[in-house]
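so i finally got all the pieces together for this one. its two components total, 467 residues if u count the protein bits. some of the lines might not be protein, just check the labels. i wanna see the whole assembly predicted at once instead of chain by chain like last time, that was a mess tbh
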Amino acid sequence: MRLARGIPWIVDFVRRMLPPDVSVLPAALVGAVRTVEIALLGTAVAAALALPLGFVSARNVAPAPLFLPARAVLNLFRSIDTLVYALIFVAAVGLGPFPGVLAVVAYTTTSLAKLYSEAIEGIEPGPVDAITATGATRLQVLRYGVLPQVLLLFLSYVLYRLETNIRAATVLGFVGAGGIGFYLQTYLRMIDYPAASTALLVMIAMVMVVDAVSSVLRARLV
Amino acid sequence: MIEVGGLRVVFPPAVVAVDGVDLVVRPGEFVVVLGRSGSGKTTFLRALNRLVEPTAGTVRVAGRAVTGAPAGELRAARRQIGMIFQQFNLVRRARVLDNVLAGRLGYVPALPSLLGRFPAADRALARECLDRVGLGHLAERRADTLSGGEQQRVAIARALAQAPAVVLADEPTASLDPALTTEIMGILESINARGLTLVVSQHQLETARAYASRIVGFRCGRVVFDGPPAALTPAVAEALFGDAR
C-alpha cells in the first residue's frame, strides 16, 4: 500500500530528473574515471596482498598452526564491508580517493584470500606429490605443483572482484571517499536533479563497460 | 641400493598398511612388487621417499638415510629417487618440457627457479630425457593435450631428468590399455638395461613375470614371497592373490 501511494512521487521525481543536465557531463566523467582508478588500484594491490594470505590459509599446503589462526583472522576481517572500511578510513586519513583505495584494498584482500585458499584446497594432490618427490623445496612445490593449477582461476577471481569493486567504489563517494558517487550525492543534496541524472547515467555506462570488458577477459581465461 | 629395515606404516586410527618389511634391493635389479590392491604396495613405495611418513623402521637409498633425515637431507635423498605414478601426476596446464624440467628442481639454484629460470645445461638435459622417451617433438605442447600413454612417457622423462640412482614406479600401467602397458614396461626395461635400479609395483602377475628380475610378493602389508619369477609357482600365486586369509 505504502509502495502504491509512493508511485506518483517516484513518477514526479523521475520527471524532474529529465532532461539530464549535459553541462555537468565533464565533471561526472572525471568522477567516473576516478572511481575506476580507485577500483583498479585497490583491486590490483589486494590481488597481490591476498597471494601469501591465500596460501597460508589453505588447509592442504599450510601447516595447521599457521592456517587455523590465518583463517580465523580472515573471517573476522571479511565480516566488515567495503563501505564500513571507507567510513573508518575517511575518519582516519580524511576525505578523497585515498581512503577509498584503502577501503577497497582492505575488503578485497580478505575476500580474495578466501577465494584463493579455496581454489588451492581444490587442486589435484598428484602433481604436488610428483614435484615433492623430485627433491624440490616447499616454495618450489608451491610454484611448480600448486600455482600452475590455480593461476587462471586466481585471475578470473580478480576480474570478478574488479567488477564488484567498481560498483562498491561508486557508493564510496557517498561517505566522502572520492569518485562519481561523491558527485551524485552532491547534486542530490543541492536538489539539482537534472545534474544528478547525468551522473547516474555516466555511472550506469561505466559499470556496463567495465562488466563487458571484464567478462570478455574472464571468458578467455577459463 | 635400497635398504629397508622393519618398515611399518600405520594410518590413524589403526590401519596397518605396511607391517614390518625388510628388503634389500641390489644395484641394477628390476624388482616388481606384486600384490592385490590394498596389499600395501603403494604405501610401501611412497614410504621409500617419505611421501608417506613411516611409523617405524629405516630406509636408506643409494647410501643416504631417508628416514630420520632433516628437510635438507631428505630433499637430497629424494632427488636421486625418481618416481612414476599410476595417474601420471603431470602438471596438466604446464608445457611438456616444463613438466620434465621440474625433475631438475632438486639441483638448480632455488631463487631463479622460482622465477622460472633454469640453467642451460638443465634445459638441455630435460630435452635429452624427453628424446629418450621419444617425445622430443611434443616439448611445447600443453601436458593435458597428450594421450595417457604419452603422459606417462613424459612422467618417465621427468624422473630421468633427476639423474636418479633408483626409479620407483607405482602401478605405472594400471591406467593404460594392454598395448600401452607393453610400451611403458618396455621403456622401463630399457632404462633398467642401462643400469638403473627399478622398483615397480604391479597387480598383474603376467606383467610382473615378463619384466622382473626379482618379484617381491605383498599380502596384507607383509612380504610373503621374494625370489626370481621362475620361483613364483601357482601355489605361491594362490597365496598372494587367493581369497583365503
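Residues 138-172 of chain A form the longest helix (35 residues).
Chain A touches chain B at residues 124, 126-127, 129-137, 139-140, 143-145, 148-149, 151-152 (CB under 8 Å).
anyway lmk what u think
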